[in-house]
């Protein structure tokens, strides 16, 4: 390989001349949406760079802006003396805090595969050794949660879920909609959902049946290892689904979207002694003593009947509606 001298030709640059070994490193496919620099002698350049609409990868840190970008460079072959203008890659500081771009490293561009800068083979300008090593990834994978940024004439930011990757963006299922929509990647932002706790009301999706793809509310009843949760489906009768589900992955649960509907607090607490009404059988209509074991935000209860053998009924009943529960009735004693 020939030894070359390179000078930068873009307007906001400090002209640099140096002699280095000319190395080629190709890249293929669409541009990577996120480039990470983990290994680099210039510590300030370490971090994640996101692909911007300009086509550059940008990282903002400590009020400074760093970019991975392409631009023209005049390359002078020291053997032939010829000067040739080539597209090259640069890792630079570009914010208004510097009069000219500070170019830390450069690398050649393979014109036939110019979508993404090479992972290695970078040459130092003002950067320190060792030179950077780049790794690549896409912004999202299927089922990741995200934020959909508003247009200029809108204000609300919507929550979404990634369905699949598409050219220049992603197919996203946006909250309050069962129809997936293409969203360009510059309007998407990563979102890490907060941890869930017992008692939290969230939403889960119905997978089949009449209400397929409908998001319905449920309540966390237990947290398990590996971000798995047991849930109780609120209004399960309405949708004809099982009232309880075990080991539901976190990615299939989402925070409740804002609606006009509000739920009032249930009237009975766990451990409360109550009476429940027998609705069928020989003792139909009789109120019997029981105790509340679980409470749900749709005002249903799991209860334990205290004298099941006496009335020939099950000891436990699940998802009992509140209208079948009442405070214990005091019995007036005859003192005459």
Radius of gyration, Cα only, in angstroms?
32 Å
Shape: elongated
* Binned strand content: 35-45%
- Low-pLDDT stretches are 1-5, 8-28
Share of helical residues = under 10%
Taken in chain order, the helices and strands follow as EEEEEEEEEEEEEEEEEEHEEEEEHEE
**What is the residue-averaged pLDDT?**
83
Tell me the total number of β-strands: 25
What count of structural domains?
4
Question: End-to-end span in angstroms?
Answer: 116 Å
Count of separate DSSP helical elements: 2
The main sheet comes to: 10 strands, antiparallel
Helix-strand category: mainly beta
Topology:
Elements: E1 3-8, E2 19-21, E3 34-39, E4 47-51, E5 57-61, E6 64-77, E7 83-93, E8 102-108, E9 123-124, E10 133-137, E11 145-148, E12 158-166, E13 169-174, E14 180-184, E15 188-190, E16 201-205, E17 215-224, E18 228-233, H1 236-239, E19 244-249, E20 253-255, E21 273-277, E22 287-295, E23 300-305, H2 308-311, E24 316-321, E25 325-326
Antiparallel strand pairs: 1-2, 1-6, 3-4, 3-10, 4-5, 5-6, 6-7, 7-8, 8-9, 11-12, 11-15, 12-13, 13-14, 16-17, 16-20, 17-18, 18-19, 21-22, 21-25, 22-23, 23-24
Summarize, please.
The protein is 2% helix and 44% strand. It is mainly β.
